């Protein structure tokens, strides 16, 4: 059965997300991705040009960070934490791919930095002046969110891995509040 070009791209991306999540960037091969997608490896190159481009596409996502100015100022930390953990709970593997491989792959770490700079820092800057400049505040927010995500979703560190999301938000929200607005 023949697939359309769009269906083939979707199959490649789905297979790539699985392989990158399971094997990491380095060990995931174009051949393994192609086999999982049921296509010849040359088709991966045809659609994406390189493993790097495939990864960038597979890991391209929108955090959909809400406009925090719409939240009561005393709740922006909890609102951001709740949004972030809901995003993780409904992740299709992209965030895990990034987090698992960022510590060993500079390209992946650069991708995370770009996502934070493009999507999180502007929302923090929108809140106005805080205890530090928006870049510093974004870095501190990222350290907390990514640290908890690593422990909860990748390392599955007890009891963090079994806590209700609301409980995690209750713990992390006050720290984020401090970083966001002082």
Notable traits:
182 residues, mainly alpha, Arc Repressor Mutant, subunit A, Tetracycline Repressor, domain 2, 2 domains, 9 helices, 71% helix
Characterise the protein shown here.
It is built from nine helices and no strands. It has 182 residues and is mainly alpha-helical. It folds into two domains: 5-58, Arc Repressor Mutant, subunit A (Orthogonal Bundle); 68-181, Tetracycline Repressor, domain 2, CATH 1.10.357. The protein is elongated and about 55 Å long. The mean pLDDT is 91.
Set down the secondary structure blueprint.
Layout: H1 5-27, H2 30-37, H3 41-48, H4 51-58, H5 76-89, H6 94-102, H7 106-126, H8 134-154, H9 165-181
Helix pairs in contact: 1-2, 1-4, 1-6, 2-3, 5-9, 6-7, 7-8, 8-9
Low-pLDDT segments: none
Radius of gyration: 18 Å
Instruction: Output mean pLDDT.
Output: 91
Number of strands: 0
Give the overall form: elongated
Summarize this structure briefly.
The chain is mainly α and 182 residues long. It is 71% helix and 0% strand. The relative contact order is 0.13.
């Amino acid at each position: 059965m023949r697939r359309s070009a769009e269906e083939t791209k979707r199959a490649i991306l789905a297979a790539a997300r699985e392989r990158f999540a399971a094997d990491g960037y380095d060990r995931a091969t174009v051949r393994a991705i192609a086999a999982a997608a049921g296509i010849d490896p040359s088709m991966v190159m045809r659609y994406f040009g390189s493993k790097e481009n495939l990864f960038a596409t597979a890991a391209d996502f929108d955090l959909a960070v809400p406009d925090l100015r719409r939240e009561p100022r005393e709740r922006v930390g909890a609102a951001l934490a709740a949004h972030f953990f809901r995003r993780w709970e409904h992740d299709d593997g992209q965030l895990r791919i990034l987090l698992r491989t960022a510590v060993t792959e500079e390209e992946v770490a650069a991708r995370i930095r770009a996502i934070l700079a493009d999507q999180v820092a502007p929302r923090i800057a929108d809140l106005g002046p805080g205890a530090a400049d928006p870049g510093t505040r974004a870095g501190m927010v990222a350290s907390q969110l990514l640290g908890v995500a690593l422990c909860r979703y990748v390392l599955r560190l007890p009891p963090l891995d079994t806590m209700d999301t609301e409980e995690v938000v209750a713990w992390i929200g006050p720290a984020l509040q401090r970083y966001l607005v002082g």
